[in-house]
Recover the amino acids of this structure.
């Protein structure tokens, strides 16, 4: 897929204020500091599209971006990260509550891209969130990030171990992608997946 444009649309915490669900939509979410904004910017080839920060917990709203608006439009949605220990529990709970409401209710949501740090083993917050998606029948893929921080052998070792541990609870695993925002690794694979999934989209009836 060729990206010709990517623009910010709106930020809010109310699903009723999201753009009309007339285009296919992909939500990006993961633990804080997983590199979510950097990955979105890499996919869209636009460095300043999603705001990046050295401080975890920067994203606190449902952020919509429209891609290829004049040709074959689709939405990227940047959701607040989870598992951020320094955020007040009440605030972190608020973020997760409106994110989950969005994920359960958004009719044009094609897939959730769950970002996972390739440097770490299975994290409790990731595991619990993916189990919640499975229980609520929300389709998702696993997107491993920060591959440039490891050697190729360590990448293979870590991700193989990650998937093996997950299979202790899952009968089968969803599709996964290996990515690096620094090198652009995995960009074409993710965009090709979105391109193919877009073909399955049917605009919801109002």
């Amino acid at each position: 897929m060729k990206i010709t444009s990517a623009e910010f649309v709106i930020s809010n915490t109310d699903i009723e204020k999201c753009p009309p669900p007339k285009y296919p939509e992909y939500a990006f979410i993961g633990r804080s500091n997983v590199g979510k904004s950097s990955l979105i910017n890499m996919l869209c080839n636009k460095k300043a599209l999603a705001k990046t920060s050295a401080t975890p917990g920067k994203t606190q709203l449902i952020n919509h971006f429209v891609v290829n608006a004049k040709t074959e439009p689709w939405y990227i949605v940047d959701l607040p990260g989870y598992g951020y220990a320094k955020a007040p529990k009440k605030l972190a709970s608020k973020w997760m509550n409106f994110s989950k409401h969005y994920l359960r209710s958004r009719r044009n949501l094609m897939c959730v891209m769950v970002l996972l740090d390739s440097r770490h083993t299975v994290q409790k917050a990731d595991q619990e969130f993916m189990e919640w998606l499975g229980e609520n029948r929300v389709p998702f893929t696993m997107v491993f990030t920060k591959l440039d921080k490891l050697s190729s052998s360590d990448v293979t070792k870590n991700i193989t171990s990650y998937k093996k541990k997950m299979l202790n609870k899952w009968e089968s695993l969803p599709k996964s992608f290996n990515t690096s925002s620094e090198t652009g690794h995995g960009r074409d694979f993710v965009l090709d997946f979105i391109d193919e999934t877009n073909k399955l989209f049917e605009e919801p009836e109002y």
